[in-house]
């Protein structure tokens, strides 16, 4: 295992903090009175970023929970092995004790098990007639007890971490859904006419760039386009709904490429490319260069296929409408 339950808990703590902060930010500004057109546009752009950050925090909480559960399962398997070892060594220790105390006028069980394992070992080791081999078996017995207890404590800690991760994921979803309902009303009232509209699909004369895509990339684009119009749902990985990173992951799976689940990891899953060197199929990231909270698939001719938030379905849009202003990087998969 490369990460301890404690480190997972710390990572989850940061995730929960992000979720709570994002939810707080989303709740602010609702009472904005008679905003100007500029204020409404600014608020819409803030909303896009806040929603994407909250969604990726929720995705990370789910990832942490799954990892914690896997760790519990692994430790439980180790506990079974330790129990078998303990049972075997305990039997050997009891046989040695019975042989050593034949004719003694006090209880073997009391000597071995009436005190702690360490004291039992010392009691027997004090007797001169135990062989070196027997002493080794008894030491193994005490070691098995210690390992068993240590693994048991590790399992309990991992179980606690898993429960906390699950609670954090559920809380993120509940807080996010509530915030989204409130913000949908805000968007409808303030930025209906300002929200970027889905751009028309490029005409036959504008598809030269997309047509140059390789077979694998074309499979990615074909799949992504087939999802256009489906709902954006937090944590969605298909087939009926997706979030931004879920769509990217599912689309590239069509080319046999297994991408990570979150934007935080997807940004490191390819070779960085500049904005002016984009090719169809490249992954586009937004808002933060180191920890982007939104991703889309470049489809050629300045267009991107993505899902932005639950107020709109998956769509293919023109980057110049808004997204170029918050673009932070791109990677080429493969």
Number of strands: 6
Tell me the Rg in angstroms.
30 Å
Poorly predicted regions: 1-32, 103-113, 194-208
Note the gap between the termini: 27 Å
Helix- and strand-based class?
A: alpha+beta
Helix content: 55-70%
Strand order of the largest sheet: 1-6-2-3-4-5
Sheet of most strands:
6 strands, antiparallel
β-sheet strand percentage: 5-15%
Please give a structural write-up.
This protein is α+β, with helices and mostly antiparallel strands and 334 residues long. 57% of the residues lie in helices and 8% in strands. It contains 9 helices and 6 strands. The protein has a 6-stranded antiparallel β-sheet. Strand 2 (283-286) and strand 3 (294-300) form a beta hairpin. The chain is elongated and about 90 Å long. It starts with a helix and ends with a strand. Mean pLDDT is 73; it is low at 1-32, 103-113 and 194-208.
Kindly list the characteristics that best describe this protein.
334 residues, alpha+beta, six-stranded antiparallel beta sheet, 9 helices, disordered N terminus
Helix and strand arrangement:
Elements: H1 5-27, H2 37-100, H3 108-113, H4 117-125, H5 132-190, H6 208-211, H7 215-226, H8 244-253, H9 263-266, E1 271-273, E2 283-286, E3 294-300, E4 303-306, E5 315-318, E6 327-332
Antiparallel strand pairs: 1-6, 2-3, 2-6, 3-4, 4-5
């Amino acid at each position: 295992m490369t990460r301890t339950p404690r480190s997972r808990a710390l990572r989850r703590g940061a995730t929960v903090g992000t979720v709570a902060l994002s939810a707080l930010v989303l709740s602010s500004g609702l009472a904005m009175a008679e905003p100007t057109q500029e204020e409404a546009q600014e608020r819409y752009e803030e909303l896009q970023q806040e929603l994407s950050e909250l969604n990726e925090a929720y995705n990370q909480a789910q990832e942490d929970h799954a990892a914690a559960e896997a760790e519990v399962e692994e430790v439980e398997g180790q506990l079974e092995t330790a129990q078998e070892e303990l049972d075997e060594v305990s039997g050997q220790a009891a046989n040695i004790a019975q042989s050593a105390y034949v004719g003694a006028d006090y209880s073997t069980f009391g000597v071995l098990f009436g005190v702690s394992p360490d004291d039992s070992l010392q009691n027997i080791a004090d007797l001169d007639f135990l062989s070196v081999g027997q002493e080794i078996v008894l030491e193994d017995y005490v070691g098995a007890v210690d390992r068993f207890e240590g693994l048991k404590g590790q399992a309990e800690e991992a179980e606690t971490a898993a429960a906390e991760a699950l609670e954090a994921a559920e809380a993120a979803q509940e807080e996010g859904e509530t915030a989204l309902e409130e913000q949908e009303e805000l968007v409808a009232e303030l930025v209906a006419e300002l929200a970027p509209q889905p751009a028309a699909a490029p005409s036959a004369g504008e598809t030269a760039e997309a047509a140059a895509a390789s077979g694998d990339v074309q499979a990615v684009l074909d799949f992504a386009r087939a999802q256009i119009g489906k709902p954006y749902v937090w944590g969605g990985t298909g087939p009926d709904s997706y979030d931004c990173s879920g769509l990217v992951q599912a689309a590239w799976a069509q080319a046999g490429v297994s991408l990570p689940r979150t934007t935080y990891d997807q940004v490191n899953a390819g070779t960085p490319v500049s904005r002016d060197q984009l090719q169809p199929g490249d992954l586009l990231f937004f808002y933060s260069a180191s920890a982007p909270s939104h991703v889309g698939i470049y489809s050629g001719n300045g267009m991107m296929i993505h899902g932005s938030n639950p107020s709109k379905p998956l769509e293919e849009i023109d980057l110049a409408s808004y997204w170029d202003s918050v673009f932070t990087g791109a990677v080429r998969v493969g």
